């Protein structure tokens, strides 16, 4: 074995040191990349957890209310009259309206006194409707709440100068059961019965009637026949 020269020893030592340094550098770079990747994954997981947390705490109804409130606020600056009409709109009900003489009768939908008076002016051909009363007793309707409570009742629409008057129509079925009323009911029922009997007699054929008469004549005795 030959002894190594000093130059060769230096070269071998330097190459060993360079290899070790390169190994250490590669290890350090690998460790840095691993740490950077783990740090990136950690940040991503943190952001994902925050998003999941906000989504779980989010209320869909509250978001909808917030969006609607924002839309209404934006609409107020552009369409204030539409919002006012929407907020003041009432539910419509069906009403029977007559004029004072009870000759014109209409059905209308309305949700307030103003709407009903306007509809009465158009449907009943009244130029200046002034007052609304109940047809049965003349009670005046003075507010929207009372009007909605009277839905289904017959209402009279009066003009200035007109007053409520009771109806002249007499309903026999609504009269109290006095003697005169009972007598009137019985008379009407008797007349109807006689009319029905007359109608049935008209439907009997002449041949059938003659057969009945002959049969009755044959059943008489000889003395009765002679007397006839």
From TrEMBL:
InterPro entries: CIDE-N_dom. The keyword Membrane applies. Keywords: Apoptosis, Membrane, Transmembrane, Transmembrane helix. One of its GO terms (biological process) is regulation of apoptotic process. The chain crosses the membrane at residues 12-35. The keyword Membrane applies. Residues 91-166 form the CIDE-N domain. SUPFAM superfamilies: CAD & PB1 domains (SSF54277). Pfam families: CIDE-N. Coiled coil: none annotated. This is Cell death activator CIDE-B isoform X6. It comes from Biomphalaria pfeifferi (Bloodfluke planorb).
């Amino acid at each position: 074995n030959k002894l190594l020269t000093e130059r060769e020893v230096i070269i071998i030592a330097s190459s060993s040191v360079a290899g070790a340094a390169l190994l250490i550098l590669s290890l350090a770079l690998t460790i840095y990349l691993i740490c950077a990747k783990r740090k990136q994954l950690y940040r991503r997981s943190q952001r994902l957890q925050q998003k999941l947390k906000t989504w779980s705490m989010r209320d869909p109804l509250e978001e909808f209310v917030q969006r609607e409130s924002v839309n209404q606020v934006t609409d107020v600056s552009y369409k204030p009259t539409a919002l006012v009409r929407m907020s003041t709109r009432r539910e419509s009900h069906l009403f029977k309206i007559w004029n004072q003489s009870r000759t014109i009768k209409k059905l209308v939908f309305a949700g307030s006194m103003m709407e009903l008076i306007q509809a009465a002016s158009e449907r009943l051909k009244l130029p200046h409707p002034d007052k609304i009363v109940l047809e049965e007793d003349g009670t005046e309707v003075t507010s929207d709440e009372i009007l909605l409570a009277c839905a289904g009742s017959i209402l009279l629409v009066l003009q200035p100068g007109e007053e409520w008057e009771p109806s002249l129509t007499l309903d026999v079925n609504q009269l109290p059961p006095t003697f005169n009323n009972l007598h009137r009911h019985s008379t009407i029922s008797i007349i109807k019965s006689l009319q029905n009997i007359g109608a049935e007699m008209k439907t009997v054929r002449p041949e059938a009637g003659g057969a009945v008469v002959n049969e009755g004549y044959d059943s008489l005795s000889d003395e009765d026949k002679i007397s006839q």
